Amino acid sequence: MRKSFITGAIAAFLLSVGIAASAQTVQTAQKTPEQVAQALVDAANARDLDGILKTYAADSTAYALPSGEVILKGHEALRKKFERILAPGVKLKVEIVNRIVDGKYVIDKEKITGTADGKPVEFYGTVIYEIVDGLIRREWYPRQE
Q1: Strands 56-65 and 135-142: what pairing?
Q2: How many CB atoms lie within 10 A of CB 106?
Q3: In the prediction, which pLDDT does 143 show?
Q4: pLDDT for residue 145
Q5: Would you give the end-to-end CA distance of the chain in angstroms?
Q6: Which of 31, 114, 127, 129 is the Cys-Cys partner for 35 at CB 3.0 to 4.6 Å?
Q7: DSSP-assigned letter for residue 67
């Protein structure tokens, strides 16, 4: 009787240690803000719409700066935006010219090149991402006014 109690206690202890170790593994497997921002760029360059959406929280919000106007909210709005960008007549490549990472914030200066409807495209843009729990929660697009 005592032997089965000890065996059961050891099994319970090992199970609890295993659960704690599994939880630790899940936490350490989460991507850093920089890795999430890079995953977005990589998915965009691979023309992978599902990969793009996986980097965003379902309720993510994009704002114009300095006005603060909401320009996109949620996966459905993001899907529509990226479907236009990934349309058959549009072939764009995103290159990170400069990246600043500060905690949960990533600021990317991007160079976008390619073709849209057969015409060459080249422009620069800046985007600021707030990345929490491995997902883009908010982003800001500075605009000249």
Answers
A1: parallel
A2: 25
A3: 86
A4: 61
A5: 80
A6: 31
A7: T
**10-residue stretch averages of pLDDT, the chain, 145 residues long:** 47 44 49 98 96 97 96 95 91 97 98 94 96 98 81
User: Rounded to 5 degrees, what are φ and ψ at 55?
Assistant: -85, -10
Where in 40-87 does DSSP place strands (E)? 56-65, 70-73
Q: What is the pLDDT at residue 21?
A: 41
In angstroms, the CA 28 to CA 22 distance is 10
Dig out the tokens for 104 from the structure.
């949960």
CA distance 123 to 137: 25
Beta-strand runs (E) in the chain: 56-65, 70-73, 90-102, 105-116, 119-132, 135-142
